[in-house]
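Saturday, quiet lab. Running sequence design on the structure tokens for the scaffold JK sent over.
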């Protein structure tokens, strides 16, 4: 199971975009992390993508894909806020998550690996690495829940 979360901007508002197996990405406004659209930037909060005229309903993410997306969003939000508190400006962030599940019921996550790509010009590498590590191992509530059944690991590519 894969999911990728990317920090983007539409020129005025930064937002996170989550891509799962569904055809349309989920957009989450940053830092408020409010779902603003899965189809168009001006759709109301909580909008669900409408099927194209004459077609079947859109393919939506499974509940566990949503859970994995939530964990990536939780960690990205946590990292972004903590870096901002330290005066470190993040200009780009992508979090890619890969997860494995148990083969028998309940098919819980057994391992989750997060790959962070962060661009933070003029940031201190050790400070960013410390914030990411603390998010993964202590601060992110969603990862805190997942660590009860899964090994959580991460890698970090930092561009300063």
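Result came back. Writing it out in full:
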């Amino acid at each position: 199971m894969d999911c990728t979360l990317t920090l983007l901007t539409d020129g005025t508002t930064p937002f996170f975009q989550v891509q799962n197996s569904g055809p349309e990405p989920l957009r989450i406004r940053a830092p408020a992390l409010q779902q603003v659209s899965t189809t168009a930037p001006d759709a109301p909060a909580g909008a669900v993508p409408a099927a194209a005229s004459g077609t079947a309903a859109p393919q939506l993410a499974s509940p566990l894909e949503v859970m994995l997306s939530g964990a990536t969003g939780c960690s990205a939000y946590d990292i972004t806020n903590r870096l901002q508190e330290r005066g470190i400006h993040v200009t780009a962030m992508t979090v890619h998550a890969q997860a494995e599940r148990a083969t028998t019921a309940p098919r819980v996550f057994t391992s989750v690996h997060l790959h962070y790509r962060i661009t933070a010009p003029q940031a201190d590498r050790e400070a960013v690495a410390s914030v990411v590590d603390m998010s993964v191992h202590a601060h992110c509530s969603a990862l805190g829940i997942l660590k009860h059944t899964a090994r959580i690991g991460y890698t970090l590519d930092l561009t300063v």
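Notes for JK: The chain is about 30% helix and 30% strand. Strands lie at 2-9, 14-19, 26-29, 34-37, 92-101, 109-119, 151-159. Ask whether to fix the surface positions before the next round.
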